[in-house]
Structures are given as C-alpha cells and as structure tokens.
Amino acid sequence: MRRLNRKKTLGLIKELDAFPKVPESYVETSASGGTVSLIAFTTIAFLTIMEFMVYRDTWMKYEYEVDKDFTSKLRINIDITVAMRCHYVGADVLDLAETMVASADGLIYEPVPFELTPQQKELQRMLQVIQSRLQEEHSLQDVIFKSAFKSASTALPPREDNSLQSPDACRIHGHLYVNKVAGNFHITVGKAIPHPRGHAHLAALVSHESYNFSHRIDHLSFGELIPGIINPLDGTEKIASDHNQMFQYFITVVPTKLHTYKISAETHQFSVTERERVINHAAGSHGVSGIFMKYDISSLMVTVTEEHMPFWQFLVRLCGIIGGIFSTTGILHGFGRFVAEIIFCRFRLGSYRSTSVPLPDGHTSNHLPLITDNSTH
C-alpha cells in the first residue's frame, strides 16, 4: 500500500512538471540554431559582465528638507594670502545680528612671500583645472564625495626655505565660529576695533600707495573640515589692477549631511558669484578697498547618501537578462526560419517550368502533364 501511495504521489508530481523533457532522438539541431545560440551566449556573457560592474558601482542619492537647526554655530575655514604686510591688514566677521567676531578668535597672521614655489604652482594649476571641469561636468562632484578622506589634501605643500625672498604678503589661515545667520567676512586695511554702532578699522595710518589686495584663496569652506573635498573658491587667484580695488564674493551656503561608506559628516556646500571694481569716489564708485565675502545661509538642507544595489536586485536583473535573451533569440530564430521556408517554397514552385503538350487539333496545352503510376514505368 505504501508503494502504491508513493507511486500515485510521484505520478501527481510528474503531471505538475512545467519543464517536460524531450528525448534527444526527437531533437533536431541546425547550423542556424547553433549560430543564434552562439550569439545569445555571447550577448549574455557581455551583459552579465556589464551588470556586475553596475552592481559593484555606487551612486549618490540627494534628499532635501528644511533645515531646523538654528542654534548651532557655523565654522568658517580660511586660508587666504593677501599681497600686503600683516600689520597693514585685518580680518573679521560681522553678521546681521551686529555680532562681530574678531580674527584673534582663531585666525593666524603669517608673513610669507606672495610668489609660489614651483611645487605650489603645480598644485594650484591642478586645482584650477579641476574647478573648470567641475563647472562643465557636475557629476564629478559625486566622485569627489566618494573619494573624501581617500584622496590627498588640497592644502598647498609647505614652502621650502628661501632666505633670498623676503615675505611681502600675509597668509591669514585658521577657522572662526559664527552665528548661523547671514554675515560678512572681510579683509581690509587696518586692524578691526569694536564700535558702538558696529565696528571700524584703523586705516588712517596706512598710505593708499601701499594698498594691494591681490590675493590667493588656497582654501575656503564652511562646516566640518573634510580632506579631499574641493570647494568652489579653492585655488582662486586675483591680481589687483589698482590700489583702491574691491573684491566681492556673494556666497550661498547650503547645509549638507554627507553619508558614504567611508565617512559620515555634517558639512556645507556653497555657490559663489564674484564681482570686482575699482573704488573711485569722483566717478561714483563708492566703497571700501578690500576683500569682502558676504554669505547667506540657505533654509534647505541636503542629505547626500551613497547607495549600492542590493544583491537580490542584482540576481533579479541577471535572471531577467538571461531569460529575456533566450526568449527573444528563440522568437527571432523561429520567425527567421518561417520566413526562409516561405521563400524557399516559392522558389521551388517557380523552378517547375510549364511545358507545351501538342493536341490532336493542332493546339498546344501549357498545363503540366498529369503524372500517373503508369507514366513512371
């Protein structure tokens, strides 16, 4: 009884077989089928390799939301070289809340030569090339995000000792913590002093002939300092054409959360618009000579996350590739054989030419003669 039940069970299971086996004696192979199979296998292998490369790659996902953090401080990282001596210039920040942050809170004034060494010039030239490519190819920013902490620092290499070249410029570098509101970071003539109605700079003791606000921005960023991230103003160099010249940078800062497989940090991206003009009060161009960076904080926060294709999705896509190619090539092969058989059949029928049969009354018949069993003998 158990054997009978087992045979019945196996019989039921066999009836549910969705993949019936065809005996090899009933399978007919052909050269066309082998060619199509070879093309199908080659296509499957190529697409499988490409799909595996896509599976190994990652991409950046951007999400936007309202920034709800208004109480924290904003860090400004600065490394700017001005072509004036350090005791002639002063740097500070004044925000919309009339709060002044003096440069003594975190900036260092270092006398240096304005001219770069060959090694430093090479790095600056490389940064300028990258900046120009970033303006043309925005997708390169994703590559920079992925390579954060892996690539080399964008800071200029230390200068070799050169006693023949005297320091004629001032390198202002360090960081400041400011309120998370719009503000104005500026470098102008004279040291900043507090004032009841704002602030002022002691510029009366400096001759106008010594004004030279040619400058080089080696680094400017907001938020946490992340090595390998290239910011829009890194590598910028401006040469003043006049003693009384104003350089303005209008910056929009966007809070950014960066989550990759290497790092997780809160930083800030920014966009910038540049403007420069000569101060000439007689011609109606008013203002103060110096370098002014007016920044504003965006109300939107961007979350950048590095994502990877799940393994199950890779398997599903791979099965779709294999099954789709087999089905498509099978349909195309069957259709091709059908068309070929129709063409060959018409060609064979056309090969039977009509023959003329004489009739007793002198007429001819163009019909094919009837082939009988007697005519074959």
Please name the defining characteristics of this protein:
single chain, 377 residues, alpha+beta, 13-stranded mixed beta sheet, two-stranded antiparallel sheet, 5 helices, 28% helix, elongated, Endoplasmic reticulum-Golgi intermediate compartment protein
In short:
The chain has five helices and 17 strands. The chain is an alpha+beta fold.
Strand content: 25-35%
Distance between the termini: 66 Å
Mean pLDDT rating: 79
Question: Uncertain runs with pLDDT below 50, 5 residues or more?
Answer: none
Total of helices: 5
| SS-derived structural category | alpha+beta
**Share of helical residues:** 25-40%
Report the principal-axis shape: elongated
Order of helices and strands: HHEEEEEHHEEEEEEEEEEHEE
* Cα-based radius of gyration, to the nearest Å: 40 Å
Domain Endoplasmic reticulum vesicle transporter C-terminal: 165-331
InterPro entries: Erv, Erv_C, Erv_N
Protein name: Endoplasmic reticulum-Golgi intermediate compartment protein
Transmembrane segments: 35-55
